[in-house]
Amino acid sequence: MVRKITISILLILFLSFSVYSEEVIVKPGDTFITIFTKLFDYDKAISIYKDLKHRLPDFVLKAGQKITFDANYAHIPIDLTKEVKIFKKNDGYHIDIIEHDIWTINSVVSGTINGSLFETVSSLGESDELAILFADIYQWEVDFFKEVQPGDRFSIVVEKRFVKGVFAGYGRILAADFYNKGRTIRAIYYNNGKLSGYFTPDGKHLKKGFLRAPLKFGRVSSKFTSSRLHPVLGRPLPHFGVDYAAPTGTPIYATGSGIITQIGFQRGAGNFVKIKHQNNVLTTYMHMSKFRSGLKVGSRVSQGEVIGYVGSTGYSTGPHVDYRIQIGSKYVNPLTFVAPPVVIGKNEIVNLNNMSRKVVDLLNTGYNRTAMIKMVE
Ligand SMILES: [Zn+2]
Which of 99, 118, 151 is the last residue of a domain? Predict the structure, then answer.
């Protein structure tokens, strides 16, 4: 009986509130004034808007945004951390801007690969975003398309953000372990003001100097060799590059950051780009159909930036990119070339390990829970 009455009261309360409550979805072309003249007269709506812009200069109503109107106030959610309430008063109005704190919690996510990394991460109730953050850290060590096996294990300490107790996204991965191909690679985030990124506990930067290939996908159609029969010239010639066959128009990426020293056309190379990198390393990309617009000698390019597109210009029998690496004037084999890793100094290594102690403890907790894994590095 008591329960029945309670339910009835709740129902009445609910109904009486819902009568006065209305949700408005901002449509393209709506303005603050057209929407707020629902609750206020025209002049008031204008002064409310001015007040609001004064206190929240970035404030704009976006199409699709929801505004809730009650008998005497309007509620505008701005983003995860901010909301605005506008109250109707006898003689005017009152604006409340409510800001919520973001709570960051360092949390451990551990798992054993079953299917793809994405499937595994999502089976743990986490989002793809975490798999992407994780794969980004290890991209220099592991080819996630080919080298990930069922049974590989990972443990991640990641910042999770919460607003009003609700998960609101990941921050940074602070440390991680990845057990793959019989070895465990530990990555710790470190920032010394000049250099930031992920390092092994013994101070090696996980980010290697160069991408493995100038294309995301492509087939090696000709390897580096000191003598082969040239397909166009018909006589034996050394091939100082690796050819990657790919459809015309496939983007070609700078494999390392550097400065363009040559860009143009040559009879043999066709449209080509040459980039000078740190430590006297040069990379060359040949036979392009076209360059990315805006590039010229002296342009600075970042690793992974598109510099041009696959083509078949110059001495070429089909669309491909001939990719070459030189150290000084000597050509080296791009398929085996390993850029020396950046290693921080001894004091820095001590710093890195001191600063990351708590995070690593947390990482070990998740790690022990999964399995005992032999540490290789
Ligand atoms: Zn070639």
Answer: 99
CATH of the domain at 253: 2.70.70.10
pLDDT at 8 over 70: no
Instruction: For residue 23, give Cα distances in angstroms to 67, 71, 75, 143.
Output: 6, 12, 9, 49
Instruction: Tell me the whole-structure pTM to 2 decimals.
Output: 0.59
Element (H, E) at 360: helix 357-370
Report the chain's mean pLDDT, rounded to a whole number: 86
Same domain, 224 and 202: no
Enclosing domain of residue 242: 219-332
Q: Phi/psi at 32 (nearest 5 deg)?
A: -55, -45
Q: How far is the CA of 255 from the centre of ligand 1 (A)?
A: 17
- Of the ranges 17-26, 56-65, 134-143, 310-319, the best mean pLDDT one: 310-319
**Angle 199-275-272 from CA coordinates, rounded to 5°:** 135
pLDDT at 336: 86
139-180 tens-digit pLDDT: 878 877 778 889 999 999 999 999 988 898 999 999 999 999
Q: How far is the CA of 243 from the centre of ligand 1 (A)?
A: 5
User: What is the 242 CA–ligand 1 centroid distance (Å)?
Assistant: 6
Q: How many domains does the chain have?
A: 3
Ligand 1 centroid to residue 280 C-alpha, Å: 22
Q: Residues 72, 73, 77, CA angle at the centre, nearest 5°?
A: 165
The answer to whether residue 228 scores a pLDDT higher than 60 is yes
